[in-house]
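S1.2 Input.
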Amino acid sequence: MSDWEFLHEMHDRGYSAEDIADAAASGVAPWDRMYIDREFVGELLDGEPEDADSIVATASRDDFPFSILEQIEIFRDLVDCAARHFENTGRYLQVWGELGEIYAEIKFGLRRHPTHTAGSDGTIDGKLVEVKTISPEKASDVVLVKSQGNFEQLLIVRIDRDFQFSSKLIDRNELKGGAGKLLRGRFA
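S1.3 Output.
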């Protein structure tokens, strides 16, 4: 059986096109995933969404090679550019993951690993962190994390249609689920 035959099996089992697209994007069949309850993750979100101009740094960046002030300016410019592009074309720029990670650098003091480092995106206060970003165009509202990933915390960043940011830092041991290749989180 090839790695992608489960997509045909999903079709045969009556899964929706959206479910099949999610599975194709993740490379894993739904029956191989661990589930995190939508309400559980929703309860963990902190406060009200923030816009790009209201986000301020909350942690020291000693020894980090880039200026936090420059990162804040870059972040704001990227959010503004993405919003203007959407207003002009009705299409989103595909910069969600990068926006989520820059937001994490500013808001939580994330120190990112070099590009393509497997297992986690960086560290916050010495703990390995995986950052997942939910874009405004994602209808399914699902976050998938490899269960074998080398991370101690999961930072979920949500960007809404008005380019407002919400986030929550969750300890890995707080995630619910059984055995499987992926942890799956849904926002309410």
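S1.4 Remarks. The radius of gyration is 17 Å.
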